[in-house]
Amino acid sequence: MKMNKILIVAIALVTISFSSEAQSKSKFGHINSNDLLLLMPERSQAEQSMQIEAKTLEDQLTAMTAEYQSKLQEYEANVASLSDLLKQTKAKEITDLQQRIQNFQVQAQDELQKKEAELLQPIIDKAKVAIKAVAEKNGYSYVFDSSLGVLIHSPSGDDILPLVKKQLGIE
C-alpha cells in the first residue's frame, strides 16, 4: 500500500514536471502591426505616392465638375430661347457629363484602393518577415497581432479540421 502511494506521487511529480516543461517552452508575444507599419519609413513614401495620385484624380474631377457646372449654367440661362431639339441635345449632354463624373468617381476610388494595396503589400510583407524572424530568434512560439486580434506566427502543427469534421459527423 505504501509502495503504491510512493509510485502515485512519483508519477504525479514526473507528470507535473513534464507538463510545466512543455508550458515553459511555449512563449507568447504580441505586436500592434498598425503601429509597426506607421513607423516604417517605406510607409511615408507610400503615403506620399498616394497623395500625389489622389491629387491628380481630384484635379481631373474638379475640371469635370467645373465643365458640368458651366454647361448647366449656360443651359439654364438659355433654355427659354432654345428649340426643343436643342434643349434635348443640351440636356442629354449635361446628363451624360453627370454620368461620366459619377463613373469617374467610382473608377478613381477603385484605382486608389488598388494603388494603395500595390504600395502597401511589399511593406506588409517586409513587416511579416521581420516579425517571424524576431519571433524565431527570441523563441516566441506564438505571436498575436493586437491590432487585428489574429495569430501571425505559430509553430507548424497538425491541421485538426479532419478530426473536428469527424467529431461533428461531417464528411
Provide the descriptors you would attach to this structure in a database record.
77% helix, 5 helices, 171 residues, mainly alpha
Describe the structure.
The protein is mainly α. It contains five helices and three strands, in the order αβαααββα. The chain has helices spanning 2-25, 33-39, 41-78, 84-137, 161-168, and strands at residues 28-31, 142-145, 150-153. It has a three-stranded mixed beta sheet with strand order 1-2-3. Strand 2 and strand 3 (150-153) form a beta hairpin. The longest helix has 54 residues, at 84-137. It is elongated, with a radius of gyration of 32 Å. The two termini are 50 Å apart.
Radius of gyration: 32 Å
Task: State the helicity in percent bands.
Answer: over 70%
Report the principal-axis shape: elongated
Ranges with pLDDT <50 over ≥5 residues?
17-21
Alpha-carbon distance between the two ends: 50 Å
Count of individual helical segments: 5
Structural class of the helices, strands and pairings?
A: mainly alpha
Write down the overall mean pLDDT. 85
> How large is the share of residues in beta strands?
5-15%
* Count of individual domains: 1
Q: Strand-and-helix sequence, N→C?
A: HEHHHEEH
Number of strands: 3
Largest sheet: 3 strands, mixed
Main sheet strand line-up: 1-2-3
